[in-house]
Amino acid sequence: MKVILVLLYMLRLLSTVQCQTERGFFSLFFSPVVATPCNSTDGTEGLCVSQYGCRVRRGTATSSCGVFAVCCVVYRTCGHSSSFSPTYFVPQTALKPTTAATSCTLHITPASDMCQVRLRFLTFNISQPEDGVCTHDSFSVLPHTFSTSMPRLCGVNTGQEVYVSFTDRTSPLTLRMLLSNNAAVAGQERSWLIEIEQMRCTDPKRAPAGCLQYHTESKGLIQSFNFAPELPNSYMNNLNYGICFGSNFKFCEMSLDADTFSVSGDGDTALALAGEALCRNDYLFIPSGAPFGQKVYFDRFCGTRLGTPNSTVSNTIITSSLPFRINVVTNKAEQTDGDVNNTGFSIKYRFMEC
Ligand SMILES: [Ca+2]
Ligand SMILES: [Ca+2]
Hints:
Layout: H1 2-20, H2 25-30, E1 37-39, E2 45-50, H3 51-56, E3 60-64, E4 69-73, E5 75-76, E6 81-82, E7 87-89, E8 103-108, E9 114-125, E10 138-142, E11 161-165, E12 173-178, E13 191-200, E14 213-215, E15 219-223, E16 240-245, E17 251-262, E18 272-274, E19 283-291, E20 298-303, E21 317-319, E22 325-329, E23 344-353
Parallel strand pairs: 5-7, 6-8, 14-16
Antiparallel strand pairs: 1-2, 2-4, 3-4, 7-13, 8-12, 9-11, 9-13, 10-12, 15-23, 16-22, 17-21, 17-23, 18-20, 19-20, 19-21, 19-22
Bound molecules: calcium ion (2 copies).
């Protein structure tokens, strides 16, 4: 028994010394010299550092990561600021949803050489828009406003990613969750877990100018914000943003197949529309988009199916305009334009080799 106690005491002594000398002799043996990334069970990413290193970051040790090292995740909440990357924005330090009506802001200070942040919405669930407008809760990134490319968002956006540039590299970006106390939404549970990763000016994975969303995989899924087809009028107004695709010389064409497409008109009637005359208010701008196998080209696509004009089913759309890019445009009105039950879009994209 005595032997065990002495051993435990020695271990404790070692760990204390290691905590106090992060770069010292013991850290060479007991924690990585160059901190390596680690994954936590809630989908967040941290750094393997000593307990002391984690306290310096004001991080949370989520799990053990080797002898005397912890996976340290930087969570921040209302009123905080951070220059660590990645930082995770949460409603409260206890990592629980909130029902409080509040203006919750987080300041992100650019570290040196950083030009942009990528926001990944690991969880994003606040109140729904009303007739396309975030009248109650909203998420915005200041000094960007909904009139610039980063829109004000609400509803459900789990799984979405956006890229926002620092307007100047010395002043912070402010992430703001505005939670309303209006009777229509009071007491609702709101939750979010937003990963904020700072991106170097030289990072090849940085989104090009004018691109709110950026995809570099050769195939994937693009969805409109608050894509929740089970909810009527989940569609968002006042959008004008670019979805861009990073490609290389290997790829000459991109195909687009809609699982869901409901952008204008009566959401309960199947009808594809295209062209400037028919798609005036809400549309997807797909440069030189042509229905597969046809040599007719359009830029604007709208209606309730994505495909050949007047078709009642969606067809594959091909674009060969490089770099691949789609613009999402919606105006400020919806039902007064005769648009009912528009739910937005969910489209599979795929690059095609030359
Ligand atoms: Ca519409
Ligand atoms: Ca509209």
